[in-house]
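Entry for the shared binder. Reason: the reviewer on the internal report wants the predicted structure included alongside the sequence.
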Amino acid sequence: MRRDVNYGEVTPLSSILFAVVLGLSLWGFVKFFLWVVFIDCIGVGVVVATLLWFVSNRWLRRVDDQDVEWGYCFDVHLNAFFPLLTMLHVVMPLCFSVMINYPNLLARFFGNTIWFVAIGYYVYITFLGYTALPILKNTHVFLYPFTFLFIFYVATVTAGWNISQTAMNFYHFRAETHNT
């Protein structure tokens, strides 16, 4: 029996894993969890879905009498978000203290590769979602970000920037800062 992914189960578990790895307080965990759900998933999803909905309906339609629905675009985002969430919120925290949190080339390579693969999956699954619509043409344009992504990946590894370390510091900062 096939069971669809339930984001309601995955997100709290990955947020608990993050809280343990980052040493977050209970309030830090709650803030982190709410940020992941409402900003990372829904907020970014609304922006991406709206942008791709506009692009699809403006330049990629084969005929003028059919439109891509915004809800479909948001659904494509959710489908593409799951592998990204798995890579960045499960794999990365599990590997962080063992393989990524070091100031050397191998740690930087591994940490940045996780980000490259996660965002690459997002781009590819988004491409597949729009390619499935027969009313669209030239959907290969959704693969164009791979060029920039690869150049950025190589540049960050060679420049000495460990994106995973920066992200973990940012996650900790946004979850544990207290307004007085």
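Summary line for the report: Residues 26-59 form the longest helix (34 residues).
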